[in-house]
Design a protein that fits this description.
mainly alpha; 10 helices; globular
Length: 215
């Protein structure tokens, strides 16, 4: 086991044992929000950290997932089905955005994805009868979690997200991403379909953002 994995395992154990982490003012509720946000940031790290794509619209996928699930739940769709449908809506939108913008270089990709985020925000504000406008949706949850229950759920989601990305970023995939990040032309010469790989990573990263933000 490498030192990186040892440190990750130690951090996971410490997190589960003590949600307070010895930090003044740090509570399980605050830890819950932080851990779900960390899941979303795993997605951003995949897109920008591993692949080098400067994308600024990740919040849009969190919003799409949440609004999609909330609207469906509000019209009577069972909560689990609504949550899955909202998640799939965000992933589908990410795939479409990737197909349109992923070929744009550097700052142009950033501007395109940021523009998409503003479009999502504008649509949410334009139809207050459906989305709740600036105030957002107000729904009665199908079940309520106490502070400890929410914290445990956050730990499970973050652990699952961290473990899954660790498995994903191994071997050939990790090597291809490193090459694409450093030199796309060299990656193409080496036989890597750069556009296809970037679309896939963008979509997966958006899925993490949707899962962490919606939850």
């Amino acid at each position: 086991m490498t030192m990186e994995r040892l440190l990750l395992a130690a951090a996971a154990v410490f997190t589960v044992v003590s949600p307070y982490l010895g930090i003044p003012g740090w509570t399980p509720s605050l830890a819950t929000v932080a851990f779900f946000t960390a899941v979303s940031l795993i997605g951003l790290n995949l897109i920008f950290g591993y692949c080098g794509m400067l994308a600024l619209g990740q919040a849009a996928f969190s919003a799409l997932s949440g609004y999609g699930a909330g609207i469906l739940f509000g019209i009577g769709v069972p909560s689990l089905i609504a949550a899955l449908a909202g998640f799939l809506l965000a992933v589908g939108a990410a795939r479409l955005v990737a197909e349109i913008f992923i070929r744009l270089p550097g700052i142009y990709l950033a501007v395109g994805t940021l523009g998409f985020a503003y479009v999502v925000e504008g649509l949410a504000r334009a139809f207050p009868s459906v989305t709740g406008g600036a105030s957002g949706l107000s729904l009665t949850p199908p079940f309520a979690l106490n502070e400890s229950g929410g914290y445990v759920l956050a730990v499970v989601v973050l652990t699952t997200g961290t473990a899954s990305v660790a498995v994903l970023m191994r071997g050939r995939t990790a090597r291809m991403l490193k090459l694409v990040h450093r030199d796309e032309l060299a990656a193409a010469v080496a036989g890597i379909d750069v556009v296809k790989l970037k679309i896939r990573i963008f979509t997966i990263g958006a899925a993490y953002s949707a899962a962490g933000g919606r939850t």
